[in-house]
Amino acid sequence: MRRVSDIADLEKAREEILRGRDPDAPMVAVCCGTGCVACGGVKVVDAFREELESRGLSSKVTLLATGCHGFCERGPLVVVRPAGILYQQTKPSDVAEIIETSIEGDGIVERLLYVDLSTGERIQREEDVPFYRHQKRLVLDRNGIIDPTSIDDYVATGGYASLAKALGSMTPDGVVGEVKKSGLRGRGGAGFPTGLKWELCRKSPGETRYLICNADEGDPGAYMDRSILEGNPHSVLEGMLIGGYALGAREGFIYVREEYPLAVSHFSKALTAAEEAGLLGEDILGTDFSFSVTISRGAGAFVCGEETALMASIEGREGRPRPRPPYPAESGLWGCPTNINNVETWANVPRIVEKGGKWYASLGTDQSKGTKIFSLVGKVVNTGLIEVPMGMSLRDIVFKIGGGVPGGKAFKAVQSGGPSGGCIPESLIDLPVDFEALAEAGAIMGSGGLIVMDEDTCMVDVARYFVNFLQEESCGKCTPCREGIKRMGEILTDIVEARGKAGDIERLEQLAYVIREASLCGLGKTAPNPVLTTIRYFRDEYESHVLHKRCPAKVCKAMIVYRVVADRCTGCQRCVKACPVDAISGPRSQPHNVDLEKCIKCGACYEVCKFDAIAGDAIYIE
Amino acid sequence: MITFKMDRRKLKVDEEVSILEAARDAGVYIPTLCHHPALEPTGACRLCIVELERNGRKSHVASCVTPVEEGIVVRTDTPAVRDIRRTLLDLLIARCPDVGILRKLAEPLGIKESAFSPENEICFLCGICVRACREIVGVEAIGFAQRGIESRVLPPFERPSSRCIGCGTCTTVCPARTFDLAKVDAVVALHGEGEDNRVRRCIVCEEHYS
Ligand SMILES: Cc1cc2nc3c(=O)[nH]c(=O)nc-3n(C[C@H](O)[C@H](O)[C@H](O)COP(=O)(O)O)c2cc1C
Ligand code: SF4
Ligand code: SF4
Ligand code: SF4
Ligand code: FES
Ligand code: FES
Q1: How many angstroms separate the Cα of B71 from the Cα of each of A377, B48, B75?
Q2: What is the whole-number distance in angstroms between the Cα of residue B191 and the centre of ligand 4?
Q3: Interface of B with A (CB under 8 A)
Q4: CB proximity list for A510: less than 8 A, separation 6 or greater
Q5: Do A476 and B92 touch (CB under 8 A)?
Q6: Measured between alpha carbons, how far is A282 from A278 in angstroms, rounded to an integer?
Q7: Which CATH number goes with the domain that contains B168?
Q8: Residue range(s) defining the domain that contains residue A107
Q9: What is the pTM of this model?
Q10: Could you report the average pLDDT of every consecutive run of 10 residues in chain A (622 residues)?
Q11: Same structural domain, B197 and B117
């Protein structure tokens, strides 16, 4: 894109870009997000490039390598426009057929279509696939339709018009007011009202102010921030620019997780392109507003996502949280007023300026406005990244978008909010997902992780798993978090390893209370959530482990006894061969025996026994 | 001046004073471990927890790092506060069973033995030595290494620190002191086991060791 000289010139530049493009030209969008690249997305793009070339179609067909579309599980994804046909799990060898059938012709490659498992129907258009149909995309909307490394694509789809609008026709206070009106709340976890945060920072005395974009995204399994940065980096930058103008800041930082090379690469390309276009740097769009952004690479610890630890890390100190007050808005980076927001929060800002706070506030629920991106994973048919209006019910998310639990298993719970989130049981499946309802249920929105669990999940084991993660990630500064989580972990390990004692559940509750009340930062304050919610909703499972040494979900190995059910065993000897420790013996054609002394409970015999298919289970689990 | 209530008493103190400082001036007892009057507060041990009521909303805060505010109500000795302190000391005593100051703090709360399986640490990571070295001596020869339960006070990169001037400040201020400064080996308690972390002769006075 050429350099833009002033506010009005941006619209002219946009028209120039559009004039050079044929809106009806066929287009192939291949997902090259991290998920699709992992299963060969780049090879598919290369194949398209070669194939289009050899057919002399390069100039007639636009080939796009896009960011994540969200349905990574089905990748590499290819969308053929204008018809909007979605091909999933494509391979380079499919490319010639796709071009022949859907670009040169107007047919469909049936075998690459998505099949709705519940109806058996093949679905042609992307927007009709249930995974997409029930979503509402404000932030991810451009992820599948632009090349994230092309500022032209962003500007052509209306990008930077919000910045121009703010600079040209709104006062800084006006922008803050609009964000306040929108009801936007921080997407980084705590849900603090963004407009209020901006106002506090703006009113803080001081010459220099800083902005930070928090892209540390430490929750395992969460990748919404990565996908935004990879798929539409300019939207985050535009949000920060608008924030810089509104708050009177000239300098911003983006703190990106070390493990996100593609996100860093796309964002730095965006910085260069924006600077060349006159949208970043000195005298932006010919006004006296100047702004620069520095990329800061994360130190790799979960706790570095906590704002005070993050700022310490940017300043080059140990990434350990410090007490607040003072809040970053009063004294942040190098003691100056600082405003820190999450990637998704920033990406919402251009939308709010474009369409107005009132419009934004019309989406969502009473207290939680707009949309939220969730990563839907676990025991669910369609996994991936989804964006839905706040307040959609868990049922709709899990069953309509997620397609329910696979393998005919029963739904048991959803863990919401990452490792320090909470487990929401089936009885609350109609819960509208927003900040308030989740908190009331003992969970949190967190960064938006949703892990679906089925009947084969042991809730005590789940609690132990998350507590172990948090124990590893505690920074070790304060007593309750460092020592308390460790002791919770010990008790939970005892319980799942059949050493639980009467009173353990109460001891867990006591520790949880102290850790929540007394910890210094959010990590410790929320760390008890997985324990407290599993006790609250699945106390009977805890009691069964502690008092009867039984794991109802048959997960905790220490409580499983493998033995042969004599009248079902045909003496086929498969299990004898499978057992790694020779614990099973018995003559051919006669019922075998498990030597419980030798048995290491690996479950190999249970897996190989053929007669569970016919006569239930020849090897019986108690 | 700021007026607020502490345990039914009305107090009038300067701005920028922490709840803990206000309590100490008024003769109200709040146990502390990581607080040192000459150092920046850090809020690590959490023993100084109190109940804070602000605009009708109650929460628990660490008094050493929470400034007083107009109209707040502070309660330093509620059953919940005692309960939290008791659990914190229980956890600390399990970590460091032989450290005298923990025993002394635990006594009034009625803790004799910890409910958790004992470990054998001396350092309870209050960070006073680290802050003293940074803020008073001004050399930053020691800091925290690793994280979580593995946290340790160590010289940078766990190597003998060329920055250390051997002033002995860290050992003097350590509240866990179960050692005698004259006994060189005792300082292993501070900087960890191993040849590398041995103390050395002070290059300033040539006498003390650190
Ligand atoms: C242990 C811990 C980890 C956190 N990790 C992140 C993170 O990875 N990304 C993020 O945006 N916020 C994270 N936060 C929240 C930040 O401290 C901060 O509240 C947030 O960046 C503010 O932005 P928002 O108002 O837009 O949500 C974390 C908080 C805690 C306590
Ligand atoms: S709560 Fe945990 S992570 Fe936070 S400061 Fe304390 S020890 Fe560190
Ligand atoms: S002896 Fe060394 S480590 Fe200890 S306070 Fe002095 S300079 Fe710092
Ligand atoms: S060595 Fe002593 S002063 Fe330093 S952190 Fe440990 S207990 Fe505190
Ligand atoms: S990476 Fe392709 S859909 Fe997510
Ligand atoms: S004395 Fe306040 S936290 Fe240690």
Answers
A1: 48, 21, 13
A2: 9
A3: 41-47, 49, 60, 62, 65-67, 80, 83-84, 87-88, 91-92, 94-95, 115-117, 124-125, 127, 143-144, 146-151
A4: B87
A5: no
A6: 8
A7: 3.30.70
A8: 24-81+85-124
A9: 0.93
A10: 95 96 92 94 96 94 96 95 96 97 95 92 96 96 96 98 98 98 96 98 96 94 95 98 98 95 97 98 97 92 95 94 96 98 98 98 97 97 97 98 95 96 97 96 94 96 97 97 98 96 98 98 97 98 94 86 80 86 85 83 81 48 47
A11: no
